[in-house]
């Protein structure tokens, strides 16, 4: 059953719960704990409203265009051809889980013959022997009642990607989770749960794409759990259509001496917002690299919070934004060192490139230090293309536009080069060359 969802902030006279009035609940899940999570999501929706510019964390991100839409869940998955899939094919990923308009597409998915006992499955059909592990983590790392979009995702949790890597198992080939939007006027709720047991390792590619340019909403939630000494490389790509909206919440919980490496790239959507929260255990190490490329009237907003909860943790973060036309990019990055998290080593840098006078980038790196034996630093730069560098390339025979395109590409390519999957790097490099042209 499907129904139109009117996304709006309730008037002052409205009572709790009216925001989602009339939206039917999903049929019961095969898992009782999923039904319990859905109920909690609905309860949270009853007390939460869509954020506005009056909310500090959203003061640069206007949701007016989103709230004017009427969106509906997909009654069925749209058609995806072999030619469509070819544009997102990653040769290195022998295991692929595909969701079309929020619905699992087994005919488009594939699984390697030897995965060392790792589980890569759609939630409703995950084997029963993994139920306890899934129940222990699903919905436990994204704080309940704190974010209306996360609550929306949980209330309508249906198909979801579940990945579990057993103890001391190392997956050589990356796992590709591909979420495809094909229909206009549709809201989807991509969901991902990754559990990396002690000593395990893998590369996970979380890929959000669109096959059409019309308005739709992808409302994603990912929970990533690393046990002791686990190692995870998480590549997150958003390349939605020109009128798409993409809202995402990612929560990462790191066990003792674990290592989490993330590369996040936003190169699509009319409005994209990603909220990333990472909590480090004792001796954990995380590296977060991000790139947002916006042009026209696009907006990309990244909020991150790295919490050093235990001693001896190390974190590094580099986030880059490129904005042209009248586009806007936002980066708010917070590093928090909790009491007792001594000998923390944290560094954060925000570097930003403006391609014209009408583009805007708002950056706010933050430190909150509640321990006294730490080494922490942060910084931010915002600038335009160097005129001397443009002139130098022109003197070597490049046109003004070609020189600007090359310099813009080089600025973003530093982040793309850190993606360990060659075919995905190539796809993003080609897209990086296309959108802004290095011009105002």
Could you explain how this protein is built, in words?
Helix content is 17%, strand content 38%. The protein is an alpha/beta fold and 440 residues long. The chain has one domain. The strands form 2 sheets. Strands 1, 2, 5, 6, 8, 9, 11, 13, 15, 17, 19 and 21 form a 12-stranded mixed beta sheet that branches. The radius of gyration is 21 Å and the shape is globular. It starts with a strand and ends in a 7-residue tail after the last helix.
Descriptive keywords:
440 residues; alpha/beta; twelve-stranded mixed sheet; ten-stranded mixed sheet; 22 strands; 17% helix; disordered C terminus
Provide a concise account of the structure shown:
This protein is an alpha/beta fold and 440 residues long.
Oligomer kind: single chain
The percent range for helix content is: 10-25%
Poorly predicted runs of 5 or more residues:
1-19, 436-440
* Class based on secondary structure composition and strand pairing: alpha/beta
Rg over CA atoms, rounded to whole Å, is: 21 Å
The residue-averaged pLDDT reads 91
**Count of separate DSSP helical elements:** 8
Question: What's the structural domain tally?
Answer: 1
Quantity of strands, as a count: 22
Question: Which overall shape is indicated by the principal axes computed on the Cα atoms?
Answer: globular
The helix/strand order is EHHEHEEEHHEEEEEEEEEEEEEEEEEHHH
Distance between the termini: 47 Å
Largest sheet: 12 strands, mixed
Strand composition percent: 35-45%
């Amino acid at each position: 059953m499907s129904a139109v969802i009117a996304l709006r902030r309730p008037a002052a006279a409205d009572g709790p719960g009216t925001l989602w009035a009339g939206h039917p609940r999903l049929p019961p899940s095969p898992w009782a704990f999923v039904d319990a999570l859905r109920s909690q999501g609905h309860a949270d929706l009853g007390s939460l409203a869509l954020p506005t510019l009056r909310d500090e964390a959203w003061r640069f991100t206007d949701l007016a265009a989103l709230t004017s839409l009427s969106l509906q869940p997909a009654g069925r998955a749209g058609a995806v051809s072999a030619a469509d899939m070819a544009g997102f094919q990653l040769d290195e990923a022998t295991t692929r889980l595909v969701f079309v308009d929020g619905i699992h597409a087994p005919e488009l998915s594939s699984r390697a013959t030897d995965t060392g006992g790792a589980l890569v499955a759609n939630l409703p059909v995950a084997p029963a022997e993994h139920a306890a592990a899934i129940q222990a983590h699903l919905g436990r790392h994204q704080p309940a009642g704190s974010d209306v979009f996360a609550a929306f995702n949980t209330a309508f949790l249906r198909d979801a990607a579940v990945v579990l890597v057993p103890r001391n198992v190392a997956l050589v080939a990356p796992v590709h989770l591909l979420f495809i939007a094909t229909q206009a006027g549709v809201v989807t709720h991509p969901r991902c749960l990754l559990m990396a047991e002690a000593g395990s390792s893998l590369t996970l590619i979380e890929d959000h794409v669109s096959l059409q340019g019309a308005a739709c909403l992808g409302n994603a939630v990912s929970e990533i759990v690393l046990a002791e000494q686990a190692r995870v490389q998480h590549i997150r790509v958003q390349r939605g259509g020109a009128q798409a909206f993409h809202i995402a919440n990612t929560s990462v919980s790191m066990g003792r001496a674990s290592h989490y490496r993330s590369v996040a790239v936003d190169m699509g959507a009319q409005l994209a917002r990603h909220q990333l929260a990472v909590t480090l255990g004792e001796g954990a190490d995380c590296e977060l690299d991000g790139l947002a490329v916006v042009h026209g009237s696009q907006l990309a907003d990244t909020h991150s919070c790295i919490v050093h909860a235990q001693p001896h943790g190390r974190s590094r973060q580099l986030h880059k934004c490129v904005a042209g036309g009248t586009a806007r990019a936002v980066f708010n990055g917070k590093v928090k060192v909790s009491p007792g998290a001594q000998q923390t080593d944290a560094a954060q840098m925000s570097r930003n490139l403006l391609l014209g006078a009408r583009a805007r980038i708002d950056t706010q790196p933050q430190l909150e230090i509640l321990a006294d034996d730490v080494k922490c630093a942060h910084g931010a730069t915002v600038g335009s293309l160097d005129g001397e560098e443009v002139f130098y390339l022109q003197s070597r025979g490049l046109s003004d536009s070609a020189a600007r395109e090359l310099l813009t590409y080089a600025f973003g390519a530093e982040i793309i080069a850190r993606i360990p999957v060659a075919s995905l790097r190539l796809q993003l490099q080609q897209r990086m060359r296309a959108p802004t042209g290095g011009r105002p």
